[in-house]
Structure formats: C-alpha cells, structure tokens
Amino acid sequence: MDEVDLSQIEKELLTAGRAASKALIKAQEIVHEGMPLLELVEKVEAEIKACGCEPSFPLNVSINHIAAHDTVSLLDPPQTIPKFAVVKIDAGAHHNGYISDTAITVSFNREAEKIVEASRKALENAISNLKVNMTVSQLSAHIESTIRSYSVNPIYDLTGHTIERYNLHAGVSIPNVSNRLGFKLSPGVVFAIEPFTTTGSGEIAEDTTGKIFRGIKRVRSPIRFDERVMDYALRERKGLPFSDRWLSNIGQAQEVVSSIRRLVRFGALYEYKVLLERSKGLVAQFEHTIFMSHDGPIVTTLRE
C-alpha cells in the first residue's frame, strides 16, 4: 500500500477510534454497582452514534468470570451490576467500515487488583515495544512476560486479532502467550491487542448460547420474516456483529429471537457464544486498536 492510501485509511480509523474511546470514557464515568445493564449498554452505544459512527459490535459487558461476548439480549430479565463486580467493557465503532475495538476493566473488587494491573500494564508494555515489521511471536512474548511478572495467569485461548474493513476478526490471532507466529506487523496492518488476565486457570469454556451474531450467507427460509433479518445482517450490517436488541423496530422480541435462532441453525448467521473462564476465576481485560504506519504504530483508540 502506498503512503496516500495509508493516510486515507488512517483518517477513517482515527475517526472510529475516537468514537469508541469517547464511549469508553462515558462508560467509566457512569458505571456503578446496581446500575441496570441495559442502561449502561444503551448509553454507551448512543455515545458512539453521537460521534458520527456506528457500533462495530454490540457493547460487551462481561462480569467476573465471564470473559467476553456478553451483552444485553431482548429476552434477558432485568440485570444490574452486582456488588464487588469485575466489569469488562468492550466497545467498538466503525466509520465507513473502518473499525476500532477497545476495552477497559472497571473493578469494584479488591481481590482483582493484580489481574487488573497486569492486563493494563501488559497492554502498555506491548504498545511501547511495538516496531514496524515486528512479528506476532515477538509481541506476544512481551505480553506474556508482563502478565507473569504479576504472578497471575493469561487466558491462553483468547487473543488479539487483525482487523480489516468490515471484518472485525480478519484471520491472524495475536495470542497473550508465547508462540511461533511469524506474521509481520507491517505498514497497513490494523490489529487489536487485548491481554486477558485471570485469577483462574486461564482456560475458556463456551456457554450454551450466545447474544451476539453476524451474517454469513443468505439461505432460503419458509418464513418471510427471516428475509428481513438476513437483509439487516448482510446488507445493513455488512457482516459486522449485531444484537437482537437492534432489531426490535422490525418485529416483536420473540419473533426476532426465534428468527435469529432459526437462521443460526440454517447456517445463515454465526453465533458468538458467551465465553467463561473455565475454573470461574475473575477475569480482567484492556484493549487498544493499532494501525501500523510506515513511521510506526498509531494507537487509534487512545483515551485522553
């Protein structure tokens, strides 16, 4: 990619990055024990839209041993932030398909202090050591060594990832543990670094269902309403993840949820299962999106 192309991409990525960053600042300001999850999710997603962007995925609010992919679903009973919670808030925005992905942990639990600091510092150290054409294996080594220095565990099977236009997880993983991946972080590469730390064993288990979905392909269905859901997933979202909450304007809650479940079974939609720390250890996460320019890394989601 030439420098002109990269400068145009950088501008779009920074627009998306600022929106997600402002949304997380908003989240950090308002989140509190006893807060309704729906209120938190709606206010933070609204902040992204107020910045002229759209969410690149539903706001994730993953609490305690829930590691990732949790949000508020249409049929969920009312939920609030529990006392002594460790709350991971993962937000993303996109502008013309150019994506940002960033996360913080807000902890009301003193037992989580070490994992919170380990995740935060692992992200900081990884970014400070980034260089053009560094390999993923070199980057992962910095992440793991920082986490281990706090005598806590990384989560082995949750990783950072490359990002492309309208593609949140673009195929290359960035593990939080040492590996032999030789992929180079060359100019033009966009990627998220997200160290997950835990008081537990560091292994992930999937819950039985998910609350976040993305369109994969159009299939034939005998139910006309399914066409509307597929149109939303493939035409409006262009394959980016979505929540059933975002479809409440096209049908009743049960109708929307039933259609989504049916389309998952048909292979039209992908379901992101809620991810749990297998030993029920507390989990912390911090994340930034980085654009590698010719002059070095640019963190698109910096928070002032």
Automatic annotation (TrEMBL):
Known EC number: 3.4.11.18
Any one GO CC term of the record: cytoplasm
Keywords: Aminopeptidase, Hydrolase, Metal-binding, Protease
Coiled coil region boundaries: none
Residue span(s) of domain Peptidase M24: 13-198
Cofactor list: Fe(2+); Mn(2+); Co(2+); Zn(2+)
Family listed: Belongs to the peptidase M24A family.
Protein's UniProt name: Methionine aminopeptidase
Species: Candidatus Marsarchaeota G1 archaeon BE_D
